[in-house]
Amino acid sequence: MMLTTEIKEMVSTLYQLHRIDSLEKLNPEEIALRFGIDLIYLPSASFYCDGVIVLGEQLSCKKKWQLFGHELGHACLHSGNQLLMDDEERKIQEREAELFSLYACLPDSLLAPLKPIKAIQQITRLFSVEESFARKRLRLP
User: Fold this and answer.
1) Residues sharing a CB contact under 8 Å with residue 59, sequence separation 6 or more, in sequence order
2) Is 113 helix (H, G, I), strand (E, B) or coil?
3) What is the chain's percent helix, strand, coil content, to nearest 5?
4) Checking DSSP bridges between strand 47-49 and strand 38-42, what pairing results, if any?
5) pLDDT at 115
6) Which among 58, 73, 69 has a CA at the least distance from the CA of 130?
7) For residues 92 and 127, what is the distance between their CA atoms, to the nearest angstrom?
8) pTM of the full structure
9) Interior/surface letters 27-44, b for 16+ CB within 10 angstroms, e for the rest
10) For the segment 65-117, what is each residue's pLDDT rounded down to a tens digit?
């Protein structure tokens, strides 16, 4: 399992490389384009497979964004088919992808000015994430 600091640094490096440096660029369509990933909305569960992220079109914008971060984590961190993995390996990948999503959806470079005051409502509005997601991220280094 990757360490929290390793995932945090990876997101930071990837965002610098792809110039994700403002709130205007912090959305699934822009990031998918910059990362060379196809993004499709379907009436299905969300998943990543072979360069394509599928998001459930029925989900709220906030949930789509958070799940995009999760699937982007799989795209950047993992290879192989989870259906062929044992439960423990799959659980590790899911934890890593969830951690990746917290840093991808709320990157340090854009969150830092707000973090000291812990303005949850402002963070949820600016970054289009659910309150529970924002609170979880603020507990991370």
Assistant:
1) 46, 67
2) coil
3) 60, 10, 30
4) unpaired
5) 60
6) 69
7) 26
8) 0.88
9) bbeebbeebebebeeeee
10) 999 999 999 999 988 666 676 888 889 999 999 999 999 999 999 988 776 55
